[in-house]
Amino acid sequence: MTMVHEHHASHIAAALSVADMMAVLYADILHIDPQNPELPERDRFILSKGHAGIAVYAALAEMGFFPRSELSKYYTDGSVYSGHVSHKEVPGVEFSTGSLGHGASVAAGMALAAKRAVSPYRVYVIVGDGECDEGTIWEMALFARQQKLDNLTVLVDHNGMQALGWCKDIADLQDLPTKWRAFGWHVIDVKDGNDHSQLRMALHESVSGMPTCIIANTIKGKGVSFMENKLLWHYRDPQGEDYERAMRELGAARHAK
Fold first, then answer.
1. 70, 76, 77, 245: which sits with the fewest CB atoms below 10 Å from its CB?
2. Considering its fold, how many domains does the chain have in total?
3. Where are the annotated coiled coils located (predicted)?
4. CA distance 193 to 156
5. pTM, rounded to two decimals
6. pLDDT above 90 (res 254)
């Protein structure tokens, strides 16, 4: 919230939508070493919906990949911490994303590389439900099924919204779990994609010979009442009373835990 506020950036609601997934992945799931970001057997994570990149930078700083003070450079001229997440000189970021659909395809390629190298690492990728309008998502889905990439997990951030409106009003994909199953994937439908215990349970589940898709039913802008399910906060940055109220609500939620 502070990064977006201080530098008049965008996509705070998209970042809040995936923040819980990021927390569970980095704290509980991913085999990574902040002191050795290039560890060959590390798990790979890609945020395909790269506009929510602040969630990645925050998670990496919390895990110790770089000092938290570095986050003050976000979205400033010449900074490596760009608006859409970039791997250039940022330890822990596997791939620059922002052009929707591409991150998932790269993740499938990484999973295939692990299979061919007989390497133990797994690959995780978060895509948006609006991003699933992209044809490359479904080409990847066919490819991953054909190659039996059971070391690949796709998490769909299913908040029901995209940049310019509700997904159902723009290109209605209807029943996403059924669609992914039809493409030959093992599908887990997580009712509350902002609940850590539900996410943790889903991320520990896999089936031999099949890639896994977790449909995480989330809330865009989760955690800040006036941002939740409001399209305005896909782009708007919180200033003045909006920022102060958001920080109060997030602080109260943190202390409640």
1. 77
2. 1
3. none
4. 9
5. 0.95
6. no
